[in-house]
Amino acid sequence: MTAHPDVRSSAQPPAVGTTAAGATAGQPATAGPAADRPAVALRGAELSYGTRVLWSGLDLDIAPGEFLAVLGPNGSGKTSLLRVLLGQQELSAGSVTVAGGPPGRGSRRIGYIPQQKAMSRGLTLRGRDLVGLGLDGHRWGIGLRNRRDRARRVDQAVAAVGATGYADQPVGLLSGGEQQRLRVAQALVGDPEVLLCDEPLLSLDLAHQRAVSELIDARRRAANTAVLFVTHEINPVLPLVDRVLYLVDGRFRVGTPDEVMTSETLSELYRTHIDVVRVRGQIVVVGAQGAAGADQPHHPMAATGGTEQ
Amino acid sequence: MDKLFDFALTAQLLQLDFVRNALLAAAVLGLVAGVLGPLIISRNMAFSVHGTSELAFTGGAAALLLGIGVGFGALAGAVVAALILGLLSRRTSEHDSVIGAVLAFGLGLGVLLLWFYPGRMSNKFGLLVGQIVGVDFASILLLSVCAVLVLAVLAVIYRPLLFASVDPEVAAARGVPARLLAPVFAVLVGVATALGVQTVGSLLVLALMVTPAAAACRVTASPVRATVLSVVFAEVSVLGGIVLSLAPGAPVSAFVTAISFLIYLACRVISAVRTHRRPATSPQQTRELTLQTP
Question: Which family does it belong to (chain A) (predicted)?
Answer without folding.
Answer: Belongs to the ABC transporter superfamily.
